[in-house]
Automatic annotation (TrEMBL):
Its EC number is 7.2.2.12. It is found in: Cell membrane; Membrane. Signal peptide: none annotated. This is P-type Zn(2+) transporter. SUPFAM superfamilies: Calcium ATPase, transduction domain A, Calcium ATPase, transmembrane domain M, HAD-like. Its main location: membrane. One of its GO terms (molecular function) is ATP binding.
């Protein structure tokens, strides 16, 4: 406010002096203009003194000497214009910083201060500081969620745009973990607080924003050092112009146009603008220093679980004793898994539920931490766990399971099932790639990151397959926490390095990197301590976006400094030559200041390398088609199982009928709907001559194979035709499975950009 009052005073003085001239009182004008300029000189003088006491040479010395020199040389109008330049520059800086930090101040302004706590039948209004874990809170429409907690009602709709940058409301189901800071965009709901307000997500975000606003960036400090040299250069040039010509007005003109506002204002404004824009995208950068380091990153290291993968295993394949069968093996394993909280157990239960398998209740279940689960199901003794768990019980996992053993060596983890003391099935678990992970790696390459590696504690086989899928430069597997730190330090010694991890298990490695990027969506309070950058959205592609924003902000800052100071240098030369009066010089310098600051604000806009296609409208049905992909992958698994079951006798005919029915009822309608609504809209967004052509061609091939399955099925049902038809039927089923899996993967990759910034998801308890 003081900056704006000072500006108003100078504007009033300038106008009053002009009026004095117009009404025939020119002798009063110099006094009025001096009165307008001298308070600015006093203000600048106090600022210069504070800088000197703080150990920095104040760069406003040039402005102070220019005002005092103009008054001394009876150039009062020029002195008032210089005062306007200084006061206007500070007011413009305040406006620019306010615009640049709008996203940060919006976060702070939305901080909840009151909450409604349910106490029996009564509802009481309390301060958020009074919230305690296990409190039952009522979140009314329009309220900000005051603390992290669990949704107690059937559904809730939250606007999390201030946290994540996602514009669409997000739906949550009963039991979902809600983060503080979201705004209730639906009906009122009850929330069971998991922690107090001070320890919740939003409080951690506010601490980060305050750190970000207070920190001085190295580039801003570098600008201070440049400014000292600039002040010395200005003094030498002004003295030389006066000494060579004997005209003190030339020296004054040099001082007037030499005020280094572009140098001292442009860098902070651009960097704060970058921090603000990152915050709007759900990326909290802990200060300008972190943003600058992020802009120089040339090596990126990723953790695996929870970073490049969702961290939630799923059932990828089943191998079972033929006498037991795959479906029965899954039924028994999932039944036993109901008594365990391990993620693998949850994946088995989910896989059985997806296949519609009814599960009996287990008995005498016992879970051995780090080993497995034992129990009784339908009077059968079951063991479910890792290979070593079965070995400890004296059960040989190799007997009859040569294929599963090979899969276990080449893929991810394998859960083994033993029935009545004999190995009966192996369940291959996979923690698939995040949908946005391949695009993240490609974008990092496009941004100039020269080396991308994986650093994980997982086995070499599992980590290697992920590294090949993402085309990473190197994979460091079997890494203990101390080993990860050593890898990060070795990479950082060669080039500026960023480490991307979950912010909890990888905290030491994040701290060892030049920039630690924490995936903090599920635990921001912990991640905030470890990372220099915290991603509030559970999407790894925001790491690449953070680097893009940082590079643009730093580039804009340097360009604003170079352009502003270049123009000031030209103006100084013109003034020294006597072609620019002090009054005209003040007006020129004011224009240069405005230009430099407005140019620095360009960091608020995305650069050309950051632009992505617009998201698809809801009527295109992208979310619905993606949800159907899970069922189609189960269909692909069924195609493989039926193909493997085809033998010399027509025992698979009933399964073929089910497969054919699913092809006609699930797959083909899905493809028709994509071509009707989704593909035309996607083609318009992606551009190019025919971006969806390859996918439509794959649709045609899938339909041809589905027709072939139907024809072969009818032929196989004829008497005596099975033996001749079975080999071709098996090949067709395998070909259809492979093509369907490939098509789903390519389609998701092609449409990923259209789903990203504008997409949404429905979340539930996990």
């Amino acid at each position: 406010m003081r900056r704006y009052l000072l500006l108003a005073w100078v504007l009033f003085g300038l106008a009053a002096g002009g009026v004095a001239h117009l009404i025939g009182r020119p002798e009063a004008a110099p006094w009025i203009w001096s009165a307008a300029a001298l308070p600015v000189a006093v203000h600048v003088g106090f600022g210069l003194l504070r800088s000197l006491l703080g150990g920095r040479v104040g760069v406003d010395a040039v402005a102070l000497f220019a005002i005092l020199g103009a008054v001394a040389l009876e150039q009062e109008a020029a002195a008032a214009v210089i005062g306007l330049m200084v006061a206007g520059g500070e007011a413009l800086e305040a406006w620019a910083e306010g615009r640049a930090t709008r996203a940060l101040t919006d976060l702070i302004a939305r901080a909840p201060r009151r909450a409604a706590r349910i106490d029996g039948e009564a509802i009481e209004e309390i301060d958020v500081a009074a919230i305690r874990p296990r409190d039952l809170l009522l979140v009314r429409p329009g309220d900000t969620v005051p603390a992290d907690g669990t949704l107690e009602d059937e559904a809730a709709t939250l606007d999390e745009s201030a946290l994540t940058g996602e514009p669409l409301p997000v739906e949550f189901r009963r039991g979902a973990e809600l983060r503080s800071g979201g705004v209730n965009a639906g009906a009122a709901f009850r929330l069971r607080a998991a922690r107090d307000a001070a320890g919740s997500t939003y409080a951690a975000i506010l601490r980060l924003t305050q750190e970000a606003a207070a920190a001085r960036a190295p580039l801003a400090r570098l600008a201070d050092r440049w400014a000292v040299g600039f002040v010395l250069f200005t003094g030498v040039l002004a003295t030389a112009a006066w000494a060579l010509t004997g005209d003190p007005l030339r020296a004054l003109a040099v001082l007037v146009v030499a005020t280094p506002c572009p140098l001292i204002l442009a860098a902070p404004v651009a960097l704060i603008a970058g921090i603000g824009r990152a915050a709007r995208r759900g990326i909290v950068v802990k200060g300008g220093g972190a943003l600058e380091r992020l802009a120089r990153i040339r090596t990126v290291l990723f953790d695996k679980t929870g970073t490049l993968t969702p961290g939630r295993p799923r059932l990828a394949a089943v191998d079972a004793d033929p006498e037991l069968g795959r479906e029965e093996a899954l039924r028994l394993a999932a039944a036993l898994a109901q008594g365990s909280t391990h993620p693998v157990s949850a994946a088995l239960v989910a896989a059985a539920a997806a296949r519609g398998i009814a599960l009996p209740m287990p008995e005498t279940v016992a879970e051995i931490p780090g080993g497995g689960v034992t129990g009784m199901v339908e009077d059968r003794t079951l063991l479910l766990g890792a290979e070593g768990f079965l070995h400890a019980a004296g059960i040989d996992t190799r007997a009859g399971f040569a294929i599963a053993a090979q899969v276990a060596a080449a893929a991810g983890s394998v859960a083994w099932l033993a029935v009545d003391g004999r190995a009966a099935a192996a369940f291959v678990m996979a923690d698939g790639l995040r949908r946005e992970a391949p695009r993240t790696v490609r974008r990092l390459r496009a941004l100039g990151v020269r080396r991308i590696a994986l650093v994980t504690g997982d086995r070499a086989a599992a980590a290697g397959s992920l590294g090949r899928a993402l085309r990473l430069d190197q994979v460091f597997s079997d890494q203990a926490p101390a080993d990860k730190i050593a890898v990060v330090r070795a990479e950082a010694a060669a080039a500026p390095t960023a480490m991307v991890g979950d912010g909890v298990n990888d905290a030491p490695a994040l701290a060892a990197a030049d920039v630690g990027i924490a995936m903090g969506a599920a635990g921001t309070a912990a991640a905030a301590e470890a990372g220099d950058v915290v991603l509030l959205v559970d999407r790894v592609d925001r790491a690449a976006e953070a680097i893009a924003i940082a590079r643009r902000s730093r580039r804009v800052a340097l360009q604003a400094i170079a352009l502003g100071m270049g123009m000031s240098g030209v103006a100084m030369s013109v003034a020294a030559a006597g072609w620019l009066t002090p009054l005209a010089g003040a007006l020129v310098q004011e224009a240069i200041d405005v230009f430099a600051i407005l140019y620095a604000l360009g960091a608020l806009r995305p650069g050309t390398e950051e632009k992505v296609p617009d998201g698809l409208p809801a009527e295109a049905g992208l979310d619905e088609r993606y949800e159907e992909h899970a069922g189609l992958r189960q269909l692909a698994e069924a195609l493989r199982e039926v193909g493997e079951s085809i033998g010399t006798t027509p025992g698979a005919v009933p399964d073929l009928s089910s497969i054919e029915s699913r092809l006609r009822g699930e797959l083909l309608p899905h493809q028709r709907e994509e071509e009707r609504a989704l593909y035309p809209e996607a083609a318009r967004r992606l551009g190019g001559r025919d971006p969806m052509g390859p996918l439509i061609r794959m649709h045609a091939e899938i339909e041809a194979l589905a027709d072939r399955v139907a024809v072969l099925h009818r032929l196989a049902e004829r008497d005596g035709s099975w033996e001749a038809t079975a080999p071709e039927l098996r090949r067709t089923l395998f070909a259809l499975e492979a093509l369907l899996r490939l098509h789903l993967t390519i389609e998701e990759e092609t449409l990923a950009e259209l789903h990203g910034p504008h997409g949404h998801e429905t979340r539930s308890a996990r």
